[in-house]
Design goal:
37% helix, Aminopeptidase, 26% strand, alpha+beta, 7-stranded mixed β-sheet, Acyl_CoA_acyltransferase, single chain, 11 helices
């Protein structure tokens, strides 16, 4: 394995990469083509195909990290990757998005610690639960939705090419309100959302907008894609905060739109942000798609 084996991901690579994701279903949002392409300005992504395995790498803040190979488990290739990362990665050498590598590490590299990244774990919810919000545990959320419905009239519309320019404007308005220039992650997220909109048809995105009447202004937007046959991943969800409760509304409306198509909704990670974690836990996730990693200096 050599550095020259890796090449930058472009839109033209979508069929090849998604073929690997189809043959070897993935569950974490980092292994979704939209994520790989649209966050490229923040986390430069490259890939290599070796022995019918897809190997991804990310360069973030000057630090390179490789992902464990996607494909049928190949111990020899994995060992080759470990040796490669000793020379070509930053502090975090390899991330594991599948737990099949953990027994191997325990058996053949017992002195190499494997860490779990709690803040990068994706939250999974049953689509039916988020669409219906039934039962006592969702009582407060239903109250906020009812208060919103009492105060506002609105429409729920699918995103179309005609509405995309207006969504760009709404995202810029949201960004200004949140002062994202002093928050690099939020700023990069808005940039990724703009990138997805600019390649809407090519990426095969779907989404919806909530328009607040009578002015018909966009109050919230949600953009999603397919994670696997059972799961949709919500890539972006933004709402104008002056409309209190609008995040609860678009969350439910998104689930209603996905009901009958997907059993699960992946709402991505909380990035160790306390407020975001509380918001995601409030919807009672049923499981998580975890990420583990090893450090370059600890590979033995």
């Amino acid at each position: 394995m050599k550095k020259i084996d890796f090449k930058k991901i472009t839109l033209a690579d979508k069929p090849l990469i998604e073929d690997y994701f189809r043959r070897f279903p993935q569950y974490h949002s980092e292994h979704n083509f939209l994520t790989l392409l649209c966050w490229e300005h923040y986390s430069h992504c490259e890939y290599a195909v070796i022995n019918d395995h897809l190997i991804l790498s990310n360069m973030t803040c000057g630090q390179c990290t490789c992902h464990a190979p996607i494909g049928e488990f190949d111990p020899a290739l994995f060992e080759e990757l470990l040796q490669y990362t000793k020379k070509h990665t930053g502090d975090c050498a390899v991330t594991f998005h599948e737990d099949k590598y953990l027994p191997y590490m325990k058996l053949y590299h017992p002195e190499t610690p494997v860490y779990q990244s709690r803040g990068c774990s994706d939250y999974y919810y049953r689509t039916k639960e988020l669409a219906e919000l039934a039962g006592q545990k969702y009582l407060n959320i239903r109250k906020q939705i009812n208060q919103f419905n009492t105060k506002y009239q609105y429409t729920v519309d699918p995103i179309t090419p005609e509405s995309i320019p207006e969504i760009h404007e709404m995202l810029d308005k949201w960004s200004d309100a949140k002062n994202t220039e002093v928050n690099s992650v939020l700023n990069e997220e808005v940039g990724a959302a703009h990138a997805a909109l600019n390649q809407w048809d090519e990426l095969g995105c779907e989404g919806l907008i909530i328009r607040i009447l009578p002015k018909n202004k966009i109050g919230a937007v949600a953009i999603w894609g397919e994670m696997n046959n059972e799961t949709a991943v919500i890539h972006f969800e933004k709402g104008i905060s002056q409309y209190k409760g609008i995040y609860k509304v678009i969350n439910q409306e998104t689930a209603k739109a996905l009901l009958g198509k997907y059993s699960w909704i992946n709402r991505e990670s909380d990035m160790d942000v306390p407020g975001l974690r509380e918001a995601k836990l409030r919807y009672h996730p049923e499981k998580c798609a975890k990420i583990w990693y090893i450090k370059r200096k600890e590979i033995l």
